[in-house]
Amino acid sequence: MFKPSPFKSPVSFRCLFCVDCCRGRHVYLTVDDVERISRLGHDPSEFVTLSIEDAAVYPTLSIREWDLGCAFHDPETGRCRIHEAKPLICRIYPFMVSRKPLGVEGEEPFHYKGRTFWLYYDGNCPGINAEEPETAITSEEIAELGLEFEEEFRRTSLDALVRLVERLGDQG
Length: 172
Fold this sequence. Notes:
By secondary structure, the protein is of the alpha+beta class. About 25% of the residues lie in helices and about 20% in strands. It has five helices and eight strands. α1 (about 30-40) runs parallel beside α5. The model has no long low-confidence stretch (mean pLDDT about 90).
């Protein structure tokens, strides 16, 4: 479960392939995500599930029934089979971008490109501040990914998904 901790300064990170982020999560897909993954040769019918929320239909990433793992998670290695094209929301994790505070002690608004966000990282992720980190993630990097997700998600609709699937079918 995501344990939000305020993200105020660069955080070192290294994925330890613990698989917690790839199981039991509701991962929203954008139409751009679906297209990017499809270009790797995956049929959307293999990895897209539709979620109905507040009278709107959203594409989400399919999960395996037997372990609630992501359709692209390799349970043997803990690695993502589509890492180079993984969904935008997966590129953001173990961080979170919110337009409003969550009520977590120490949280502060972050102002970026004329917008206000509250940024968090998952305090349960063992890759946060891991030994021998691969990278240090900045607030600006996460805010930029949050903006990108908002823009792509705004363009995502059932109609846009149907048009994409039709176009992919015509190309196949």
